[in-house]
Structures are given as C-alpha cells and as structure tokens.
C-alpha cells in the first residue's frame, strides 16, 4: 500500500521551504526588515558609482607595501561609502569599487591620483596663479612617505578653552628629523609650511612652535570635524608606501543600472513563465515536479547570494536567468530516461528509480565540465565577468541539487499519493533511427562552409577597415581608450548636427580625430569612444555636456582603460578558452577512458567557437570582457550536450567494434537523445531570447552571440560530435570491417 501520508508530508515540506525562502528573501520577519534580498550587494553597473584601478609606479614593490597601500586606500574609500571594496590584483594593481556615490566624478578626482604629498617651506615656494594656486617648488622638507599617521581629533584651545577640530600628524624617524629642522627655522617668524598634494595646496598652517618629537597638530581652520577628517584622509593617501597611477576607471549612473536590472528581470520572468508552460505541456506530471523544483532553485539562489555576500552585477543577473534555462536540462535527461523505462514495460516506481540512476552520470559529467568553464572565468576574468562566473557556478550546483534530489522526492511523493498512471508521465515513442553517420559528409561540408565563411569575414574586416583595421570590433576592454555613454533628456533630438557637436567636443579635448559616435539602442542617448583621456579631460568633457545640453550628471557614464590593460585582456581571453578546453579534455579523457571521446568533444567546441566568431564578425558586436564569458558559456553548454550523447554511446557500445555495429550505435544514441537535445536547446533559447529582446544594449550584445552559440552547440552535438568520433575511430583503424562470407 502506498504511504499517502508520507507523500503529502514530503510535498508540504518542500512547499514550506519554498515559502520560507521566499518570505525571508522578499519580506522578512519583522516590520522593519525588508527581506534578505535587500541586503544583496549590487555591483557598480546596477547601483552606480566609481571603479578605478591603480598600478604601482617604478620598481616592484614588496607584498607588504602593496598590502599597506591597500589598507590605506580602503580607509580612504570608506570616507565615501562603507560598502567600498579595495582588492589587490595581478601586476601590482589595486582596484577600488565605491558603489552608490552621488557625485561620482568628484570622488574619482579626489580618490587618489598619481601625484604625491609634499611639505614645503614658505621660502621655497612660489605661485603662478592667483591666490595659492599652481605652486612651484624644487625643494621639499619631507614627503608623504615620511608620515606615519594622520588622524582627525578634537582638543581644547589653550587660549579660549573651547573644543576645536584638529589634525594630528606623526612622522617616521627620518621625517621627524627633517620636520624638526624646518620648524626650528620657521618658528621665529611664524612662517608657513605648505602641505601640497598633486600640485594643490591642502593646508597652509603657521609654525607656532618648534616640533622636535615628530608629533604635529594642525588647528584653527576646521569648522566641522568632517573637514578635519577630509584633510587627514588626504594626507594618509599621500603617505602611501608606493606611488600609484590610474590604468582603468569607470563611472556609472545609478539610474541606468536600475533600468538594466528591471528589463533583465522582466525578461527572466517572461522566459521563466514560458518554460513552466512548456514543461507542463510536454512532460505532464514530471513537468509539474520540475517546475516546483525550479521555483525552489530561484529562491535558494537569492538566499545563497545573500549568505555568501556575493556582489550581483548585470552579467550576474544574466547568469541566473541563463541558469534557469540550463537547469531544465538535468530534468529533461531524467524524464527522457523515465519515459524509456516506461516504454519497456516497467512500473512507474521502478521507472523513476532507474531513470534517475541512468541519468546521473550524464548530469554529473555535463555539469562538472560547465563548472570548469565557470572556474576559468572566475580566475581569468575581472569585475563583472567574475560576477557572471559566480552566479553560473552557484546556479549549476543548485540546479543539480534541485533536479537530482527535489524533483525525485516530488515524483515519489506524487506516486505515494496515488498518481501512478503511466498517462501522467508519458511513454517515449519508438522513433525510426536517423542515419547520422551515413550523412556525416553533408554535416562536415556545412560546417566547413561556415568555418571558411568565418575566416573570410575576419580577413575582410581586417582589409576593408570595417572594424578599424582589426578582425573584430574590439571594444574598450580589448582596444583601450575612453568611452562615454550619455543619456539625453527626452526633448533633445539626436540628429546629425548634435552628433557632430558631441564629436567636436571630444576632438577638441583629446586633440585627436579618432572619435566614434553612435546611438544607444533603446535609449535617447549617444555612446562615444575616443583615445584615452586623462581624468581632467574626462571632467572637462562632462562639464561641457552638462552646460551645453543640460544633461543630468547621473545620466553620464564613462569608462577609461589603458592600452596595456587592454592588451592583457585580449591575451586573457585566448588563454581562458585554451585552459578551459584543456581541462575539459583531460576530464572527459579520464571519465570516458578514451581520448577519442575527448578529442571529438574539443574539435566540436572549436567548431562552435569559430561559428560564434562569425556572428561577432558579421554583426560587429563589440568584443570586450563579456566576450570571454560568452565563449566559455557556449563551451560549457556545448560540452554538456555532447557528453549526454557520448554517455549514451558508451552505454550502447557493449564492446562492439565492427563498422556496421558502431554505425548503428552512433545513430541509435543520437536518435535516443534527440528529444533531450531539442528540448534543452529550446528552453535555454527561450530564456536568452527574452534577454536579447528586452535587455539593455550591453545585455543584448551578450545575448545575441549566445543565441547563435546555443543553436550551433545543439547542431554540433547532434550532427558533428558523434559522427566525428566514428570518423576518427575509423581513421585509426579501430573499426573492424566485417568480412563477407563466401558460399561453398
């Protein structure tokens, strides 16, 4: 007798977990708590703010010097936002992210330049500008490297007995001696010692006493404690152990980020709804179980993002949405297996058990290879690409859990409740075996034509100058320079005259004619790319745009990347794909114990990569940092699909080696998994298609190549991978040709 009580309790428990996760994520437990989703940190592309990367100047600094610098920059950044992040990177770099700041340009200007902090005696300085501007000096008392600490404090004035705001300085041993000598010379006439940072006077205190112990106090000019803290923090940053220069920066408007997340979430909601409908219609009762498991996957994802303190970026949101489509894959593999067992006459309970057991190896192998791609993305990527890799990896793990455990529990629970009729599950229909092997020549010809078209298109781009003399339309990440994204007021018409005016603004500021102005799709805005501009030049451009077109500052985004960084990104893109391919090859080789399986998979992946390159070349979609994420996502997706087919070949081969037998094995294996291949490609395609239709331009440029990659990946898995494996086996002489018998 079926245990109906057990089944009901299991279903109620899973629904309760979904409800609890949803409640804590979106609502919370008290009237003051907004839900844990409110605590998920948003990246700069969603929250707005500043990101800047510095590189150490001169000789290689020690690890301690870099860490000291990082700590000091962290303190400096926290003046603007407690959510600031300062991390050490490769090549002696430090990246600072400050989300949610109101005046991003002001922060970028004061955060820390490549200048240094100097203490200059009054007799050793002159000023070119009016007032104390444009100081000129050749001699310094000491520099920021001689400062040990600088802190804002309050103390009692010796004359008035009132509390006053001050800045206390402590010098290192060498600085103490230098400063003591300077104050001894300045004290008799109460002369000034100027504190200058990057060519600007921060403070000009008078010397009222000889200071021989290395501890000085700046007082008298601070109306508020914050003013004292501002000076102290500027002195601290000037006291960095090493000198830094800016190599990359980005200013993002918060409103633009919110528009991006809203459209992406809308795309995800529509795509999710369509997938639920598809699963219910095509897979009936198992489709219902999978849909419930997918809902659990979504709310668990939000909980995990909060628990792991993951910073969510726009590509990260795209990664979650993409995972919804890919999460269906494990369920489709399982349901196909269950239907096959039911077709063999097994009972529903037995079919469920055997279906999950047989699907396990393909699901694990496919997801591990995709995890390899996510891992390489995280290691070799930067910024938003790391965010995409993080959500991709978390999504893969959660989707495996929900498919292998939650869906199984739900199906068994429904069986216990008496839903055991085969009609609720469906039976895999016997299909006529398709002759894939016999038609391999046609498939190889089609692929050869597409690959040749890719090569031709790349050459044409290079020769014709369609992509500025490059084979692809390299974005800022890969070419270096500065870009501005400007969203104008709705009443501003963006005609050719306006475009020419904006182009002239950039030409005049940069002194170069290398300026490209294009409209931003779906917005009343312009995107401008120019040669690399300095911080002052970027500020001048921003101010000109504000004055001339009354653009709101929050609607101006800019990004700056040096040529050296862009060169590294191009190399990283190639290295990332190579590392991922090698790791996948080794894993498949070990798991399948046949290097031909691994080699066929990698060749099929190369096929997919080249055809996606063709899409980039034809559409002139910008090739930037997300290009790495796109390629490795396609690699992971394609290898996943290929492994499902290879797993079936391994199961069906049973030691057969004759050409006729292996032909039959490949044809049957591909035919048996064809429904899975089509349905998985379709569900993933639906999710990404919604992103391509509704997403902002940056998401759309990410989604369109993915669509091409998923179609190509599905084609290569079905038509290329298995037949290529057969062709290589035959070329190696490992396929035995049956001898014809002769009658006597």
CATH topology-level name of the largest domain: Multidrug efflux transporter AcrB transmembrane fold
Which runs of at least 5 residues are low in confidence (pLDDT < 50)?
A: 29-33, 738-744
Report the principal-axis shape.
elongated
CATH C-level of the largest domain: Mainly Alpha
Strand content: 5-15%
Please name the CATH architecture of the largest domain: Up-down Bundle
- The helicity comes to 55-70%
How widely separated are the two ends? 64 Å
User: Can you count the beta strands?
Assistant: 19
Biggest sheet: strand arrangement = 3-4-2-14-19-16-18-17
> What structural class should be given to the helix and strand makeup?
alpha+beta
Tell me the radius of gyration.
Answer: 32 Å
| Sheet having the most strands | 8 strands, antiparallel
Mean of pLDDT? 82
Number of domains: 5
Number of helices: 20
Can I get a quick summary?
The chain is of the alpha+beta class and 744 residues long.
Describe, in plain words, how this protein is organized in 3D:
The structure is a single chain. With 744 residues, the chain is an alpha+beta fold. The chain has 5 domains: 77 residues, 2-Layer Sandwich (Alpha-Beta Plaits); 126 residues, Gyrase A, domain 2; 172 residues, Multidrug efflux transporter AcrB transmembrane fold (Up-down Bundle), CATH 1.20.1640; 185 residues, Multidrug efflux transporter AcrB transmembrane domain (Multidrug efflux transporter AcrB transmembrane fold, Up-down Bundle), CATH 1.20.1640; 80 residues, Alpha-Beta Plaits. Helix content is 59%, strand content 14%. It is built from 20 helices and 19 strands. The strands form 5 sheets. Strands 3-4-2-14-19-16-18-17 form an 8-stranded antiparallel beta sheet. Strands 8-5-11-12 form a 4-stranded antiparallel beta sheet. Helix 17 packs across helix 18. The radius of gyration is 32 Å and the shape is elongated.
């Amino acid at each position: 007798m079926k245990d109906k009580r057990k089944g009901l309790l299991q279903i109620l428990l899973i629904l309760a977990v979904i409800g609890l996760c949803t409640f804590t994520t979106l609502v919370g437990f008290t009237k003051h708590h907004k839900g844990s989703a409110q605590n998920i940190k948003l990246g700069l592309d969603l929250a707005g703010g500043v990101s800047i990367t510095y590189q150490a100047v001169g000789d290689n600094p020690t690890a301690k010097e870099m860490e000291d610098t990082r700590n000091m920059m962290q303190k400096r950044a926290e003046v603007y936002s407690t959510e600031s992040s300062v991390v050490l990177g490769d090549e002696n770099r430090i990246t600072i992210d400050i989300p949610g700041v109101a005046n991003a340009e002001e922060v970028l200007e004061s955060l820390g330049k490549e200048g240094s902090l100097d203490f200059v005696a009054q007799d050793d300085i002159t000023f070119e500008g009016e007032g104390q501007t444009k100081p000129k000096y050749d001699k310094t008392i000491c520099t920021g490297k001689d400062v040990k600490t600088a802190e804002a404090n309050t103390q009692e004035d010796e004359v008035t007995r009132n509390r006053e705001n001050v800045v206390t300085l402590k010098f290192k041993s060498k600085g103490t001696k230098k400063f003591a000598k300077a104050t001894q010379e300045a004290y008799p006439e109460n002369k000034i010692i100027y504190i200058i940072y990057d060519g600007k006077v921060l403070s000009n205190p008078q010397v009222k006493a000889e200071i021989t112990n290395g501890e000085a106090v700046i007082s008298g000019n601070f109306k508020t404690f914050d003013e004292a803290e501002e000076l102290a923090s500027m002195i601290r940053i000037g006291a960095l152990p090493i000198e830094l220069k800016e190599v990359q920066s980005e200013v993002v408007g918060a409103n633009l980020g919110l528009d991006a997340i809203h459209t992406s979430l809308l795309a995800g909601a529509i795509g999710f709804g369509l997938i639920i409908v598809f699963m219910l219609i095509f897979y009936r009762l198992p489709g219902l179980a999978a849909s419930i498991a997918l809902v659990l996957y979504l709310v668990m994802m939000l909980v995990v993002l909060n628990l792991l303190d993951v910073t969510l970026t726009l590509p990260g949101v795209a990664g979650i949405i993409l995972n919804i489509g890919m999460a269906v894959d494990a369920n489709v593999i399982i349901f196909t297996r269950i239907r096959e067992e039911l077709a063999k006459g097994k009972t529903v309970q037995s079919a469920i058990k055997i279906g999950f057991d047989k699907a396990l190896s393909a699901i694990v192998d496919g997801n591990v290879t995709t995890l390899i791609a996510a891992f390489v993305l995280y290691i070799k990527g930067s910024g938003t690409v790391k965010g995409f890799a993080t959500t991709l990896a978390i999504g893969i793990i959660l989707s495996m859990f929900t498919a292998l455990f939650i869906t199984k529990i739900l199906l068994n629970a429904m069986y216990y409740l008496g839903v055991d009729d085969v009609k609720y599950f469906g039976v895999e229909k016997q299909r006529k075996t398709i002759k894939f092997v016999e038609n391999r020549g046609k498939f190889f010809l089609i692929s050869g034509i597409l690959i040749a078209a890719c090569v031709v298109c790349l050459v044409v781009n290079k020769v014709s100058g369609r992509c500025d003399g490059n084979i692809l339309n390299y974005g800022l990440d890969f070419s270096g320079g500065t870009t501005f994204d400007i969203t104008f007021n709705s009443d501003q018409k963006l005609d050719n005259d306006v475009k020419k005016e904006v182009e002239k603004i950039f030409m005049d500021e940069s002194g170069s004619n290398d300026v490209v102005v294009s409209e931003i799709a779906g917005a009343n805005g312009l995107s401008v790319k120019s040669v690399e501009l300095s911080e002052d030049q970027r500020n001048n451009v921003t101010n000109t745009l504000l004055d001339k077109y009354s653009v709101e500052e929050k609607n101006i985004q800019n990004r700056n990347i040096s040529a050296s960084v862009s060169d590294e990104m191009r190399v990283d893109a190639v290295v990332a794909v190579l590392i991922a391919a090698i790791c996948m090859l080794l894993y498949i080789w070990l798991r399948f114990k046949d290097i031909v399986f691994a080699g066929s998979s990698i060749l099929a992946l190369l096929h997919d990569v080249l055809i996606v390159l063709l899409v980039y070349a034809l559409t002139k979609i910008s090739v930037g940092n997300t290009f790495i994420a796109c390629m490795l996502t396609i690699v992971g997706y394609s290898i996943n699909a290929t492994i499902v087919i290879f797993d079936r070949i391994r199961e069906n081969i049973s030691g057969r080696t004759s050409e006729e037998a292996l032909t039959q094995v490949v044809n049957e294996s591909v035919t048996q998994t064809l429904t899975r291949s089509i349905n998985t490609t379709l569900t993933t395609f639906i999710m990404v298609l919604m992103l391509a239709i509704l997403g902002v331009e940056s998401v759309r440029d990410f989604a369109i190549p993915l669509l091409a990659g998923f179609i190509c990946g599905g084609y290569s898995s079905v038509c290329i991978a298995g037949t290529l494996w057969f062709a290589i086996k035959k070329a190696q002489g490992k396929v035995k040709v049956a001898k014809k018998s002769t009658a006597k």
